[in-house]
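step=predict obj=DUF389 domain-containing protein n=313
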Amino acid sequence: MLHLRAICPAESTARAVEVLREHPGVAHLIVHHGVAVQPAGDLVEADVAREAADEIVDALCDLQLDHAGGITLEALDTALSDAADKAEEDAPGEGADAVVWQELVGRTGEEAKFNLTFAAFLTIACLLAAVGVVTDSAVTIVGAMVVGPEFGPLAAVAVGLVLRKGELVRRAALALLLGFPVAMLVTAGATLLGEKAGLFDRAVVNNAHTVDFVYSVGPFSFVVALLAGAAGMLSMTSAKSAALVGVFISVTTVPAAGYAVVAAILGNWDRAGNSVQQLLVNLVGIVLAAAVVLLLRRRKQRAAGLERPLSRG
């Protein structure tokens, strides 16, 4: 279940309540008259089945509540209520399979922004990858995979392509195009300092083989990227968000970026080039698979008559 809160101008409250009252996927409808201060109006609350949320939010947006008021959704971990159980039973479809498109656009849009936090996480991840390379430590490479924040913008690119939201695609692409060079430049500087300080030996790094998988590009590199992209988008569009951790550990985007930097600093241009190729293969594979998953889920919703046109971003 999801908890919905809508701030309504007084003249729109009756229609908003009617929308919620008539939908079978709604329970616990509450109206607080005159409690909203900014923007002024009434507060309408309800618990809605996840599979009904997209249709309900779109109907409320048709009343211009997203402009004249405000609409928020939050997940409910526990709902002990016969009315809630009935709403979930009566709503068409399955909650785990439901895509709340407005939520998805908002979530990916937020994660697609290039900001200090994104740059910091990506830089830390690349530094961890570089440490994993110079110490020949697969465990540290896995740590870099987990820390890397790049799946957010990649998912945003896929969402923007499928929903034809050019601004979302541009913003996400900019985050990646700025984030990776910044992280790699910082990592390059740290690698140079580490070599001059004698923290690692050039010959030892060139002869290490435990982390060779990072720059070894082959058919399975693309297969893994496709599977990871599909799993990641399924996780983002359903209630199975825990699967995202597995996606992070599956792909070698950040490790490839870190390896490319270390190899370039050490003059091993073959490995640097292969690492960059690995990075590109993973980025393209993730976006492609994520977009295909979205297209298939959208087609399924359209076939079931559950999707309405998404015109707002």
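step=describe
The chain has 14 helices and four strands.
step=end
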